[in-house]
Amino acid sequence: MTQPQEGQNPIMQFVPLILIVVVFYFFMIRPQMKKQKELKKFREDLKKGDKVVTTGGIYGKVLEIQETVIIMEVEGQNRLKIDKAAVVKDMSDVAQK
């Protein structure tokens, strides 16, 4: 086994570990936090008439917005009461094309 060199600073042994943590933060954690922030803003900006998709894949149009719940209309005049956190995508732009 090799012994650490006498002149080497013991803190230098932790530099690779610290670099791994920094890289992990910038490539994994930070983008996820940014994505969550954008999704939260999207949910706060929902308005009546927006066409959306839920986490379960249900497509519908927002009829009413309450504090934590939205009422959405799906095909055939059916209405669903859905938690706001379940709305993940705005389809208004796609529907116009």
Explain the layout of strands and helices.
Layout: H1 15-44, E1 51-54, E2 59-65, E3 69-74, E4 78-83, E5 87-90, H2 92-96
Antiparallel strand pairs: 1-2, 1-5, 2-3, 3-4
Organism: Labilibaculum euxinus
Family: Belongs to the YajC family.
Pfam families: YajC (PF02699)
Notes on the structure:
The model has no long low-confidence stretch (mean pLDDT 87). By secondary structure, this protein is of the alpha+beta class. The termini are far apart. The longest helix is centred in the N-terminal third of the chain and has 30 residues. It has one domain: SH3 type barrels (Roll). It is built from two helices and five strands. One of its GO terms (cellular component) is plasma membrane.
Helix percentage range: 25-40%
What number of structural domains do the residues give?
1
Strand and helix order: HEEEEEH
Order of strands side by side in the largest beta sheet?
A: 4-3-2-1-5
Low-confidence runs of at least 5 consecutive residues: none
Main sheet properties: 5 strands, antiparallel
Which architecture name does CATH use? Roll
